[in-house]
Amino acid sequence: MDKYYFNLCRFANIVSSNSLSKIEYIKENFSFLKDKTYFIPNISNTIRLSEPGMENYFSNNISYVGRISPEKNIDVCIEAFAKFTGTKKDQNIHFNIYGEANNIQYLNKIKNLISELKMDKYIFIKGPINNVNEVYKRTKAICLFSSYEGFSNVLSEALANGVPMIVSNIIENKYLVENEKNGYTISLQDTKSIHFIFTKLFSLSQDEYKKIQKNNLTKSNEIFDLDRIYNLYSSLLN
Q1: Measured distance CA(21)–CA(151) in Å, rounded
Q2: pLDDT tens for residues 138-152?
Q3: Of the candidates 150, 218, 146, which has an alpha carbon nearest to the alpha carbon of residue 181?
């Protein structure tokens, strides 16, 4: 923890964080803070451009949205996707990567990996995007295989748009994604079997896919209900 923020916490009556992993870290390492530290999620805009429909279901796009950097394990997703598409290249399935790449070394690594796997026609690095809702409207699923993560705005937005998610099973992601209910969680210690999740996703019936969409919208409305969040803050202050 940054020394400046640590000292602020020492003298605060209440400490709130939007990160479950930070809450765990504080409670495990600073016992004198644990009884006054609370988790409150980000306030997220859950307004959608439109109700999710079957455009997502019929999409052949899998998408990553976020920073292109090593802790995001985009290379793991690329390898799993390449394994999945090995027998499905006639179906024109694509993996699109959106986001800024400040780590040029890692960007070159994934570019080289795409070439080595001969996936240039199926995996595309799109760069930053201004209107991310257009991605959510036209993708079958969002992937986020982070080794660590704060409270993910990308997953929050995908949740609000009803988009299924395939995520690493770290604590922050599991708060938003329940395995087999509104998406899928994967273990980064078992990367060889990740491609089976893609198979499962593309094997869903329309009704099964609709159920995931509905579960996402329900969960989004529960977590990001403004009255609920304001009441959490109010209860702490009172």
Answers
A1: 9
A2: 999 999 999 998 889
A3: 218
Q: How far apart are CA 83 and CA 186, in angstroms?
A: 16
> What is the per-residue burial (b if ≥16 Cβ within 10 Å, else e) of 147-183?
eebebbebbbbbbbbbbbbbbbbbebbebbbeeeebb
Q: Indicate if the alpha-carbon torsion angle 54, 187, 114, 198 is positive or negative.
A: negative
Could you tell me which of 237, 154, 141, 130 has the C-alpha nearest to residue 182?
141
Query: How many CB atoms neighbour CB 90 within 10 A?
Result: 7
Which residue in 221, 192, 200 sits closest to 48, CA to CA?
221
The predicted-structure confidence for 51-73, as pLDDT tens digits, reads as follows 677 889 999 999 999 999 999 99
Q: Against a cut of 0.85, is the pTM above it?
A: yes
Q: Tokens representing 150? A: 């704060």
- Strand 141-144 vs strand 94-98: parallel, antiparallel, or unpaired? unpaired
